[in-house]
Amino acid sequence: METIIAGLRRSLGGAAFLVLCLFVPGATPALGQPAPGYKSVRLFGVDYVSAAEFAQRFGLTAQWIVPQKKLRLKSQWTTLDLAADSIEVWLNGLKLFLGEPVVSRSGTLYLGRRDAEQLLRPILSPGSAKPAPTLRTIVIDPGHGGNDPGNQNSRLKLTEKTFTLDVAKRLERLLKAQGYRVVLTRTSDRRVELDERTEIARKARADLFISIHFNGFSSSRVSGTETFIMTPRYQRSSPQAERTASMVSTNFPSNRFDHWNALLGYQMHRQLVQHLKQEDRGLKRFRYRVLSTIECPAVLVEAGFLSNDAEGRKVASPAYRQKIAEAIAAGVKANATTLASLRR
To answer: What contacts 198, CB < 8 A, 6 or more positions away?
Structure first.
């Protein structure tokens, strides 16, 4: 049996093999079936579930890395590392940010219930929600433009708006070659308001929205790649604070797609980290306007830091920008493969 599985892994590739694993008895809850209710524990005003119960529901075994502080949940297909008092977890070597920190109580680690159900469950068991969306029209959103330059590196004369448009056009060609209908929110150096960007996606009947950006920071030492999806209702964004308390309880249009956003974000971030080989700054959630008002699964990519000279020089290279476009296209392909398998 192990020989057969190893052969399938090689022949199907990562994304398709992950979907196949969902059919393995005991690996995850059955496809299309809602996850059983957890026994919640109220801690610090938040509902938590024990990591042991979470592990049991997904066919994982628990192993202490550091007793009562660091825990590894593991199966043949999955490795999830948790640490007490941290919002960072590592899923199959990829960094994910939780909305609530992991808590240690009486020798047990606890996960926020919403983190378990709205971030981890969609990734580990994408078929636990139905129906899987179709993927025909993709809207690419090159960040900034016109009198909004975005992040800049004055030392190297780098401007975010120029590179986001270049990567978007490269990505457009790749996705059209895969057979998708592709729409850009801007095709030239012009300012497009945030609401106009989501309106373009609505009119195009977008099935997927990809917003492309490059980061900046006060310290030039900071580098790496990070990916954002919309924050689910009643959760705090990670790791940034909300602008207003009312935002946490607001049911935004894009919250209809929380399950598929989590799956998309994980697959997109994995491809970016693997292709670009930059520091993994994590899959994060935030209520950016283009993510909150969009009416389809959506992701915002921060493909690198222009404020870091070494990373900025890479972004300035056309060959590296092509690599970024190829990484995003690979993320789309991985997501499409999973969705298609769930519709069979």
So the answer is: 209, 289, 290, 293, 294, 295
Say whether both 167 and 302 belong to one domain. Answer: yes
Residues 124 and 168 in one domain: no
Lowest-pLDDT choice from 13-17, 42-46, 335-339: 13-17
What does the alpha-carbon distance between residue 158 and residue 305 come to, in Å, rounded to a whole number?
A: 11
The reported pLDDT for the residue numbered 36 is 52
pLDDT tens digits along 308-321: 999 999 999 999 99
**Full-model pTM:** 0.89
Phi-psi region for residue 150, left (φ > 0), alpha (ψ -120 to 50) or beta? Answer: left
Domain end position, chosen among 128, 153, 174:
128
User: Taking Cα atoms as reference points, which of 226, 211, 213 lies closest to residue 164?
Assistant: 213
Element (H, E) at 285: strand 280-285
User: In the prediction, which pLDDT does 344 show?
Assistant: 85
The number of domains in the chain is: 2
Rounded Cα gap, residues 214 and 70, in angstroms: 33
Range of the domain at 45: 2-128
